[in-house]
Amino acid sequence: MTKMILVLVALLAGNFAVAEGKVAVFDAQAAMFNTDLAKKRIDEYTKKPEIASMRAKFEGLQSDLQNMQKEKETNGMTWSQDQAAEHRKQEEYKAADLQLLVKKLKAEENAALGQIQRELAPKVQTAVNQLVASEGIGLLLHKRAAVYVEPALDITDKITDKLNKAK
Known about the structure:
By secondary structure, the chain is mainly alpha-helical. The protein contains 6 helices and 2 strands, in the order H-E-H-H-H-H-E-H. One of its GO terms (biological process) is protein stabilization.
C-alpha cells in the first residue's frame, strides 16, 4: 500500500514538473459573455421586435394563468362539473401555449448565444495564447476543473480585457 502511494505521488509530481511556469484557470464563457461586444449583441437580441413580442405574450399568458387560478380558488366551489371542466381545459390550453412560447424563446436565445460564441471563440483562443505566452503560464485549466482557486490565479478578467481591447 505504501509503495502504491509513493508511485502515485511520484506520478503526480512528475506531471507538475512538466508544467513549468505558472498555473492559472479561466472560464471561457464568462470571458466571452462579459465582453462589450457580447453585451452589445445580447442587448440587440433583447430589443428585436419579435423577441419583445414573444416576451410580452409570455407575460400575458403567465398573467392569464394566474388570474384563472385565482378565479378557480375564488369561485371554483360554485361551478358545475361542466364549468369546472371547461375552466380546466382553458387552463391546459394556456399552459400549452406558454410551454410552446418558452421553447421558442429558449431556441432563439440559444441561437443568439451560439452566434456570439462562434464570433468570439477564435478571438478568445488568440487572447489565451497571448496571455499564456506573456505571463509564462505552464498549465491552464478550466475554472470548473479546480476545486479551489486563489483569485489571483484566475485570468478570466484579463482575457475579457484583452478581448475588449482587440475589437
